[in-house]
Amino acid sequence: MAKAVTKTPKPLKADAPPRAEKASTSSLSRTAYEFVRRAIQIGQYSPGDRIREEEIADQLGVSRTPVRDAMRRLEADGFLVHESHRGMTIAQFDHQTVMELYAMWNVLEGAAASMAARHAADAEIELLEEYIALEPAEAVTAERMAEHNRKFHQAIYRSAHNRYLLKTLSVLSDSLDFLSRTTFTIGARRELAQVEHRAIVDAIRARDPEGAEKAARAHIRAALRARLTLLAETPDS
């Protein structure tokens, strides 16, 4: 795994909410949690970077107490780790972590697609078709495709009509969001993903649960192969 390099503190690009001196500590803690999480998602911090309470508190215009609470929650959720002599740093996802995440994603994604084939309303299927139609334009850059891909999968999850599955996938998606670099930077991954997405939606439209699950699992396996390629390109990963 690559050694982390401490960056010079810089203002975060995540939008800071207006100061709210009278807000409760729990409310400020939630605000700080979402602020830091967003900063990581947009690449303001990279895996292994140190994150300082005082920096976040200054950005939000609050005391360090709610920020400290937020960082403890981020640590409990696996997004931050405490390192001796460095303090809190952004978690680094190694090979084993990636394998575990994708193993669960494979199972849950397949289940979501299968349930969507059974329960999706016609309007929800039409929305998936609209996402498919947009993909050639969204695939012009890896970043745009990654954002579009997230929306596409969220639409499938909602179409499954299972609150518990949706909640579980939401937690897993949060973890996947913290993986450095999108797999859509690799070769023809953007083009292949479009073909895979089409296969999933075709099975859902045909009300074919087994076909939808099979297509979804094949999609995740392809995504894993791309992720492992990225890991192989990272020194000491």
From TrEMBL:
Keywords: DNA-binding, Transcription, Transcription regulation. This is DNA-binding GntR family transcriptional regulator. Residues 1-27 are annotated as: Disordered. One of its GO terms (molecular function) is sequence-specific DNA binding. Residues 12-22 have a biased composition (Basic and acidic residues). Residues 26-93 form the HTH gntR-type domain. It comes from Aquabacter spiritensis. It comes from the Bacteria. PANTHER family: TRANSCRIPTIONAL REGULATOR, GNTR FAMILY (PTHR43537), TRANSCRIPTIONAL REGULATORY PROTEIN (PTHR43537:SF49).
